[in-house]
Amino acid sequence: MRLLILSFILLLIAGCTVKQEQYPNEPIITFKEYSRSTIVALDTFSMIISFTDGDGDIGITSGTPPRNDTICITPFDVTITNPGFNFFYRDLRDSCTQFARTEYFEPTGKNKSIKGEVVIRLGAYCKKQCSTPGCSDTARFELLLRDRAGNLSNKVVTPPLVITGCQ
């Protein structure tokens, strides 16, 4: 009897499969954190962004020629011809759009859905000019990720980043 119960339990365990995560083919991004919450002017810092992507085509390999197309990122109001970049961030202080290339991600196995993190390293700079010692500026960024198929992610606005030491 014990052998029968043990065999039944083993069959139940062996029959269980772990369901793998499935995500939409368009990337979905979430701002995770800054490497530091307060930055000194001209210092470097990082933004960490988490992502999911259903077909696992995030990132561009180094040396890859730019895409042969034109995209318009709205409401960024910018048209980018032949972009060799897949991460876009706009400084909300002046709407200046910048571009970056993220690490290349390649899914393994049958399920192509992936999730991960992207780390973007930036330099902090003040746009506010002032004569008061200890003056600071506050930056926020709007973020957008593009996968290799050309799908654009949701837009995310970061929390404020305080930049001290402005002159």
Please give a structural write-up:
This protein has one domain (22-164): Immunoglobulin-like (Sandwich). With 167 residues, the protein is mostly beta strands. The model has no long low-confidence stretch (mean pLDDT 80). It has 1 helix and 12 strands.
Main sheet: strands, sense, barrel: 4 strands, antiparallel
Mean pLDDT comes to 80
Secondary-structure element pattern, one letter each: HEEEEEEEEEEEE
Could you give the distance between the termini? 83 Å
Strand order of the largest sheet: 7-6-10-11
Strand content: 35-45%
Number of domains: 1
Which fold does the CATH topology refer to? Answer: Immunoglobulin-like
Question: Mind telling me which CATH architecture this is?
Answer: Sandwich
Topology:
Layout lengths: L1 H14 L12 E7 L3 E3 L3 E10 L16 E4 L4 E4 L5 E5 L4 E5 L13 E10 L12 E4 L1 E5 L10 E2 L3 E4 L3
Parallel strand pairs: 2-12
Antiparallel strand pairs: 1-3, 3-8, 4-5, 6-7, 6-10, 9-12, 10-11
